[in-house]
């Protein structure tokens, strides 16, 4: 049985990757009823994070989304008019099943299923890592762009400041020169203080 085939039977429900009871039964080569009876006899081994039953809404959504649930492909599986809703098994729940269905086929199938779950988990981690790297690259690019804009603003500001300083220096020089001229005029027009000498 190809790993890709198994991967196509893994769905994401309630933010968990799961396989449905009738798909597992088909792979283990047992009836779905037999599989579920074995589970019910050992229900303490299957807490809610190992196994849960789909709601009608969840099941109908799966039926509408996945080709693998079409009627034509479900001749030996749970069909459109099922009397009860399927059970979903998480990776831990599937691992627990191997202890119940103690057959060579069940053991072999479970090993392959576990490998697929591991492969999916590794791919997910790799994707998340690449996504984080891409996010970091985008953040660095944003920082670089902001830094370039800042440097440009600083250069513009420096040039503007230099121009203003030049204008200030020129204005001060003109003001000082004007002040000197005014002082000279005032000095000439000022009356002398003290004794005045008259020539008779």
UniProtKB/TrEMBL annotation:
Protein name: KilA-N DNA-binding domain-containing protein
Coiled-coil ranges from the UniProt annotation: 133-163
InterPro entries registered for this protein in UniProt: KilA-N_DNA-bd_domain (IPR018873)
Domain KilA-N DNA-binding per the UniProt entry, residue ranges: 9-98
A Pfam family this chain is assigned to: ORF6N
Originating organism: Candidatus Ordinivivax streblomastigis
Keywords associated with the record: Coiled coil
Domain of life: Bacteria
Lineage: Bacteria, Pseudomonadati, Bacteroidota, Bacteroidia, Bacteroidales
